[in-house]
């Protein structure tokens, strides 16, 4: 039965919507029930993600009531020319010919396009599940009609997101299926499955650079920095002649660039939602894969950096023995001692940056949300270890990989509050008892906390490791000193994507 969470001006308590971490159950601190959707939309949706593939046209086959959101997203990205729809009507379900409607509708879209796409991301929806559509037949028919087009088998089926893979996880698998194996380039590292461009100053990028390798990713990091408006804080001014400093990183600007993913010697993802898709690609091509989430504690950063150095060295060593590196095969690796050596240097810089930020921010209350960093408890732990006054973390579930951080926080900071974001009470609780200055890390923490002092990052903004902590500290100082227009900022979708907003 539905119950009202507020009667008139009656006070609403936090019971069931917030809990001390020492009293919380792992990994689900809150029960699943009717959900509240806060007007905070910094994360990416499937339109943003799918449009990362160059020369790819998106086609959605669904009813018009579900089409509104994806159409608006394409328009907001100024990408309506790469987006089409096939509308399903009620009689299409009664007649039992949804396969035919889908095949003919998609075919008609392709024939009417003013250009020939290299790939087509065809999104089927919940209705295709409900009526038992033979999706294999649908796509085999399309591939037979258009053999020159790579079809990506995608889904927009949010009703399935509580069981199995989410639509985003499915998409991040489908969008790499056209990649075919190419001769291995041991010096090519592909960073995929993430919604933000990897920062070229990050520990990952600098290790890859010192190993003499290159990075290929779907994002253009220079455009990314300009879009989210933080380049002036995160990157030092380039001096004359330093443009080549970042030449080891290139984006996929054409479909041919995209197909070069098949030559990578190593695949990396930083996103938990990218693990399934990128690991399946690496398995299919027979290449090594690393999951390097944006951890923040010194021990985990060091462990992940060491693992990256180890894998890169093994790849170069194998390539040398196989004669793939030519004359360089007999040369010592630019290897890992030098690359791994950046870890203590960056660690000292991170510690100093956090200490400076702590001196400025003092005991100001700090709240954090999971949108800023998927490893939100690991970040909370690092900030608490550095002396910051972190009081509340906004999340709805704890990632299994954060169990050690959860247990550490239970023992060391038992009064830390875990706060739901989708509990129905949060519709009201965000307006109650907001007193004193607060610094929020993440857009949801800002909206729920009612503060204009916040760090506006999504998916950690592409920063990583100790160098990422240096940049986060700078953003925290800036947010502490300067207000933002929270009401106008947090509803914006797809922060960091090619958005016209």
Protein model, in words:
The chain is an alpha/beta fold. Among the domains are: 121 residues, Rossmann fold (3-Layer(aba) Sandwich), CATH 3.40.50; 154 residues, Rossmann fold (3-Layer(aba) Sandwich). The chain has a 6-stranded mixed beta sheet with strand order 1-13-12-11-14-15, sandwiched between helices. Strands 8-7-6-9-10 form a 5-stranded parallel beta sheet, sandwiched between helices. Helix 12 links the parallel strand 9 and strand 10. Helix 4 runs parallel beside helix 6, helix 7 packs parallel to helix 12 and helix 8 packs parallel to helix 13. The protein is globular. The two termini are 40 Å apart.
Could you write a compact summary of the structure shown?
By secondary structure, the chain is of the alpha/beta class. Helices cover 40% and strands 14% of the residues.
Features:
501 residues; alpha/beta; Rossmann fold; 6-stranded mixed β-sheet; 5-stranded parallel β-sheet; 21 helices; globular
Largest sheet properties:
6 strands, mixed
What percent of the residues sit in helical stretches (DSSP H or I)?
Answer: 25-40%
Strand content: 5-15%
CATH topology of the domain at 185-235 and 242-344: Rossmann fold
Cα end-to-end separation: 40 Å
**Spatial sequence of strands, sheet with the most strands:** 1-13-12-11-14-15
| The level-1 CATH class of the domain at 185-235 and 242-344 | Alpha Beta
Radius of gyration, Cα only, in angstroms? 24 Å
Structural class: alpha/beta
**Envelope shape:** globular
């Amino acid at each position: 039965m539905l119950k009202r969470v507020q009667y008139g001006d009656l006070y609403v308590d936090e019971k069931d919507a917030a809990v001390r971490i020492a009293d919380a159950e792992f990994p689900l601190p809150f029960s699943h029930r009717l959900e509240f959707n806060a007007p905070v939309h910094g994360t990416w949706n499937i339109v943003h993600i799918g449009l990362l593939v160059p020369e790819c046209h998106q086609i959605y086959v669904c009813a018009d009531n579900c089409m509104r959101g994806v159409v608006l997203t394409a328009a907001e990205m100024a990408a309506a020319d790469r987006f089409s729809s096939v509308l399903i009507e009620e009689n299409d379900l009664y007649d039992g010919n949804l396969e035919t409607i889908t095949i003919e509708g998609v075919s008609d879209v392709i024939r009417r396009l003013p250009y020939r796409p290299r790939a087509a991301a065809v999104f089927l929806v919940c209705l295709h599940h409900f009526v038992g559509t033979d999706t294999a037949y649908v796509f085999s028919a399309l591939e037979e009609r258009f053999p020159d087009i790579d079809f990506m088998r995608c889904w927009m089926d949010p009703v399935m997101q509580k069981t199995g893979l989410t639509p985003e996880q499915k998409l991040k698998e489908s969008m790499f299926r056209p990649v075919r194996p190419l001769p291995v380039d041991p010096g090519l590292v592909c960073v995929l499955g993430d919604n933000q461009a990897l920062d070229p100053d990050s520990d990952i990028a600098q290790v890859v650079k010192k190993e003499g390798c290159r990075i290929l990713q779907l994002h253009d990091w220079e455009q990314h920095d300009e879009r989210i408006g933080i380049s002036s804080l995160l990157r030092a001014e380039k001096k004359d002649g330093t443009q080549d400093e970042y030449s080891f990183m290139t984006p996929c600007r054409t479909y041919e660039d995209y197909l070069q993913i098949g030559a990578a010697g190593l695949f990396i993802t930083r996103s938990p939602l990218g693990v399934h898709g990128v690991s399946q690609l690496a398995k299919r091509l027979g290449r090594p894969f690393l999951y390097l989430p944006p951890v923040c504690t010194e021990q985990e950063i060091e462990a992940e950096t060491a693992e990256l150095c180890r894998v890169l060295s093994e790849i170069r060593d194998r390539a040398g023995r196989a004669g793939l590196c030519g004359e360089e095969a007999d040369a010592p690796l630019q290897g890992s001692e030098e690359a791994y050596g950046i870890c203590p240097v960056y660690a000292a810089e991170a510690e100093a940056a956090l200490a400076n930020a702590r001196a400025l921010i003092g005991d100001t209350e700090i709240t954090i949300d999971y949108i800023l960093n998927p490893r939100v408890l690991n970040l909370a732990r690092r900030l608490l270890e550095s002396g910051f006054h972190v009081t509340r973390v906004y999340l709805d579930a704890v990632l299994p990989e954060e169990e050690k951080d959860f247990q550490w926080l239970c023992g060391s900071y038992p009064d830390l509050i875990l706060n739901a974001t989708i509990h129905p009470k949060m519709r009201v609780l965000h307006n109650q008892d907001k007193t004193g200055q607060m610094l929020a890390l993440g857009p949801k923490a800002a909206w729920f906390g009612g503060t204009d002092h916040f760090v506006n990052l999504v998916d950690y903004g592409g920063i990583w490791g100790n160098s990422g902590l240096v940049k986060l500290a700078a953003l925290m100082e800036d947010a502490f000193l300067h207000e933002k227009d929270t009401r106008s900022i947090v509803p914006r979708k797809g922060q960091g994507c090619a958005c016209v907003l």
